[in-house]
Design a protein that fits this description.
It contains two helices and ten strands. The chain is mainly β.
């Protein structure tokens, strides 16, 4: 029946048993060795694990149980040459991600409940996280990234600066899918990609710095729970590329109390 309803501020879509719980653990440890002749070797270890439970009475539930561990070595040295300073880094790394993620969204209806009445047995439904069944998507698996990167920051005495960087990543992916909307089964694949950046700037005697940058990045297509869908593993589409080109002019004046900048850029992400 068409009519007018007046709702109290407490009469909302949130149900009495809705919850969103997150637990995150973050650990890192660096070991640094200052070697002779200005060399430095740094080993960086990183771990993060998180668990998520999300229940919404209107018909949505979700969980994550994932973790990642990375070990990265950074070898660096700055070379002071006549008229130029060159700061360099070389960095091999290995990063492993283990994921488990489930989604329940096929019967997510925001008009399920009459807000003037509130949730009743007729407007509620058994969520997948409550029953352990009928998930839209569940993905369990892992992937390992073997990477190596190099960086050079070159500064000339007469004002020119050049920054050059490159990285290669090789991924090995394994994912098992189940649920109504997932590609079911266990699948494995591997792929690699290159990332790079090149930037040039010039510091003028008036404090203005014109610059230009071009870069490309390769990264993984992962979901909220760090998961990689089985369809992306089969189609070998779990890596994505982005590109950016930028030119600009910036400057700092009056003992850094005034900063000005203007730039134009073009960015593309697939």
């Amino acid at each position: 029946n068409v009519g007018t309803a007046k709702l109290k501020k407490s009469q909302v879509l949130t149900g009495p048993n809705d919850k969103l719980n997150n637990e995150d653990t973050l650990l890192y440890f660096d070991a640094i060795w200052s070697a002779p002749a200005g060399w430095e070797i740094k080993n960086q270890m990183f771990y993060e694990g998180y668990k998520n439970i999300n229940l919404n009475a209107y018909g949505f539930s979700q969980y994550h149980d994932s973790w990642v561990f990375e070990d990265k070595v950074v070898i660096s040295k700055t070379f002071d040459l006549p008229g130029v300073k060159v700061a360099t880094q070389l960095s091999p790394s290995i990063r492993h991600t283990d994921f488990e993620h489930g989604d329940d969204y096929d019967y997510e209806y925001f008009h399920r409940v009459d807000l003037t009445v509130g949730y009743t047995p007729l407007s509620d439904r058994l969520l997948s996280l409550e029953s352990g069944t009928n998930y839209s998507e569940v993905y369990k698996g892992n992937y390992t990234d073997y990477g190596v990167a190099g960086l050079a920051d070159i500064t000339f005495d007469w004002g020119l600066g050049v920054l050059l960087g490159a990285r290669y990543d090789q991924f090995e992916v394994e994912s098992t899918g189940s649920g109504a909307d997932a590609l079911a089964g266990k699948y494995e694949n591997d792929d690699g990609g290159v990332s790079w950046t090149a930037s040039v700037n010039y510091t003028t005697k008036w404090g203005l710095i014109p610059y230009a940058t071009s870069s490309k990045q390769t990264t993984t297509i992962a979901g909220q729970g760090a998961e990689i869908a089985t369809a992306n593993v089969v189609g070998k589409t779990f890596l994505s590329e982005s590109e950016m080109n930028e030119v600009g002019l910036k400057g700092s004046f009056f003992d850094d109390r005034l900063y000005v900048a203007i730039d134009a850029y073009k960015q593309e992400r697939t």
